[in-house]
């Protein structure tokens, strides 16, 4: 069984001894924070779920540098994928892409139906084990009839925008060149991954000459010199957005309203937005921040993505921005479904797997049903 390369863009940066000491010393208060969180916060949840949410709020809520956060949270996506494969007895199937990106297949490679997933993590964290638990749930639901490919993209701040969008274009082009029909591809993402899906949609509607352009199936990979417009004979199968990050600001009331409820405290939200803004240039601003676009920007979206599902949590800081983006999308895509989970937090659908409660929520049922209909299973 081949091992994935470890030179992808989500490779851990070097850490000093000081970073390690500071991070480890701060963890001494974690048990107390979790105990308080279980009894004071997240009413109506199981103790395991409340403990997990409290631990995330503690780890993200203290003033930390980006390096310290990565030290506390990050194992590379390639490492997690290899660990999942060993545990599951599955083959490691990794397709290398340009500029250090890779596609990790969960289950067999397929050309008939593919779910391309772009993971979240504020563009600074790699994938989490919860993603692979979710993918296994999907494979169980669909009896292996769907190919699931997770994009391993480069992370900020070491790799600023628009590198992640470039790598996403390469991933989609790779699937097309393998013979997958656009109508049989669902492009999905959570949080930053949802933002990346919308960046791709912007590039499809408004091809920017500084970025690679998608073409119909080609015998050779797409290159930077490609400047033609997208001319697929058919649209993609659909777009799935789970708690998508649509604006790099905290101007909406839901950030204040949910500041003690969501898993991402205000301090962490400020840090994340400051990091991603570093890579935004005036010429690409509209491509990279989908919630801040001029009127008419999304005209024609329904011809590219005729089906859209957006999920979010009632108690997440992003919910007002998500609903605002959902309204814009619904104007262009008649078949748009929006589900706000009562009492849900950011990425509730995925985060539930961390406490062994995946597959239980109404959001899971809606996503599974929507994917089944979109892929004609």
UniProtKB/TrEMBL annotation:
One of its GO terms (molecular function) is hydrolase activity. The active site is at residue 191. InterPro entries: AB_hydrolase_3, AB_hydrolase_fold, GDXG_lipolytic_enzyme, Lipase_GDXG_put_SER_AS. Residues 115-347 form the Alpha/beta hydrolase fold-3 domain. The keyword Oxidoreductase does not apply. Keywords: Hydrolase, Membrane, Transmembrane, Transmembrane helix. It comes from the Eukaryota. The chain crosses the membrane at residues 20-39. Gene3D superfamilies: alpha/beta hydrolase. Belongs to the 'GDXG' lipolytic enzyme family. This is Alpha/Beta hydrolase protein.
